[in-house]
Amino acid sequence: YSNVRELGGVLYTDYVYPFEIAAVILLVAIIAAIALTMRKRPETKYQDPSQQVTVKRDERVRLVSMQAEKKQ
């Protein structure tokens, strides 16, 4: 016999209900974590890919001519 086999036997016979309760608690925690990360927040900024594709170069970049400054 090995320690792993004995541990598995004890978990699934003597401690089956606490083991199942711990599994359910972990499952609820995973679902809650996913729900918290997937919710929409109004203050979060999102990018619209369709708007990014339709933008032309002239609308994005503006070149400004400036006079060189004199060093003093």
List the helices and strands and how they pair.
Layout: H1 3-13, H2 16-38, H3 49-54, H4 57-60
Can you offer a commentary on this structure?
The protein has 72 residues and is mainly alpha-helical. The protein has a domain at 1-41. It has four helices and no strands. The longest helix has 23 residues, at 16-38. It starts with a helix and ends in a 12-residue tail after the last helix. The model has no long low-confidence stretch (mean pLDDT 88).
Q: In brief, what are we looking at here?
A:
This protein has 72 residues and is mostly helical. The chain is built from four helices and no strands.
Number of helices: 4
Shape: elongated
Computed Rg: 30 Å
Largest sheet: none
Question: Could you name the ranges where pLDDT drops below 50 across 5 or more consecutive residues?
Answer: none
N/C terminus separation: 88 Å
List the secondary-structure elements in sequence, H or E: HHHH
Number of beta-strand segments: 0
Instruction: Please identify the structural class as seen in this structure.
Output: mainly alpha
Q: What helical percentage do the residues reach? A: 55-70%
Oligomer: single chain
What key phrases describe this protein's structure?
single chain; 72 residues; mainly alpha; 4 helices
